[in-house]
Specification:
The strands form two sheets. Strands 1-2-10-7-8-9 form a six-stranded mixed β-sheet, with helices on both faces. Strands 5-4-3-6 form a four-stranded parallel β-sheet, sandwiched between helices. Helix content is 49%, strand content 16%. The N and C termini lie far apart (43 Å). The protein is α/β, with parallel strands linked by helices. It is built from 14 helices and ten strands.
Length: 318
């Protein structure tokens, strides 16, 4: 059963709009020449907190009852959802506690705290989810980073903007972590432009959706890619159903290709992305001969630190 549809995304749009940026769709002559067709970039790197996550987080919080808001919420994240939920909580006056796994980059922790959230570090992502459930038992509302129809619908408002701004849209490439962004964007795009193809993208080592599609059911994995913001240890039944229904394919690219694409995007367009976003370019290149007349790459986040970029370039020789 599909978790959401186009009407859910359209209902979320007026709720979310006052709280987030309507991010631009930028054209790129260089990328168009590289891929042999018209290429546009959905610049969600310029969203509040540097990623798409506030869209879904605001939609989650705005649907809570007043008493739930007063008691506060708890969420689990390896990075971008932490910042998105913390920011939304600050803006709406909702207390937020975030559980993060060990190894979460320090700049993610600093930003999340700066937005006013309480941050607690757990040994791993499984323990983080377990602790979140414990806090929910004490009165806080537990909010899921991807397996939540309201999160998906809020994220999908990005897709509505793409359809408005990208005439002749033929192909859209969107990253998959747990699938909450993909499900929302695909619901919007396929609902409004059925002929457009939506391609899901993962990095090797964070390819839970590819594993689930191949197995026919969600599969737990231990994320190992440098794309930390794609590091969901599993996808949900709902996001798997969305992938089956709406995606042309799920493409998996190696970290090295994501970093090479990151550097190319930065040098040629002056936009800094994360590997979790730049992987869309690497994926589009892998199916270059199949692309239609107008390709959109969703650059879903740009929260990469300078030290990370230096380390990645040294590691992969880019």
């Amino acid at each position: 059963m599909l978790p959401i549809g186009l009407p859910d995304v359209q209902a979320a749009a007026p709720l979310v709009a006052p709280h987030v940026h309507r991010t631009p769709l930028g054209s790129s002559r260089t990328l168009s020449e590289r891929l042999g067709t018209r290429v546009s970039l959905k610049l969600e790197v310029f969203q509040k907190t540097g990623s798409f996550k506030p869209r879904g987080a605001f939609n989650q919080l705005l649907h809570l009852a007043p008493e739930q808001r007063r008691r506060g919420v708890v969420g689990v994240s390896g990075g971008n959802y932490a910042q998105g939920l913390a920011y939304a909580g600050r803006e709406l006056g909702v207390p937020v506690r975030i559980l993060v796994p060990e190894g979460t980059p320090s700049h993610y922790l600093a930003a999340t705290r700066a937005y006013g959230a309480e941050v607690e570090i757990a040994p791993d992502i499984a323990e983080a989810f377990a602790r979140a459930e414990a806090y929910a038992g004490q009165g806080r509302t537990a909010l899921h980073p991807f397996d939540d129809p309201r999160m998906m619908a809020g994220n999908g408002t990005l897709g509505l903007e793409v359809v408005e701004d990208a005439p002749g849209l033929s192909d859209l490439f969107v990253s998959i972590g747990g699938g909450g962004l993909m499900a929302g964007v695909a619901a919007a795009v396929k609902g409004l432009v059925p002929r457009a193809r939506v391609w899901g993208v993962e990095t090797l080592g964070c390819h839970a959706m590819r594993l689930a599609l191949d197995a026919g059911h969600p599969v737990e994995m231990h994320p190992s890619s440098i794309a930390k913001t794609l590091a969901a240890p599993w996808v949900s039944a709902g996001t798997l159903a969305a992938a089956r229904e709406w995606l042309e394919d799920v493409l998996v690219v190696p970290d090295a290709a994501a970093v090479e694409a990151l550097v190319f995007i930065l040098e040629r367009t002056k936009v800094l992305t994360e590997p979790a976003a730049s992987c869309t370019l690497a994926a589009a290149e892998s199916v270059r001969e199949r692309l239609g007349e107008h390709v959109v790459l969703v650059l879903c986040g740009g929260n990469a630190a300078l030290d990370d970029l230096t380390a990645w370039r040294e590691r992969f020789g880019v």
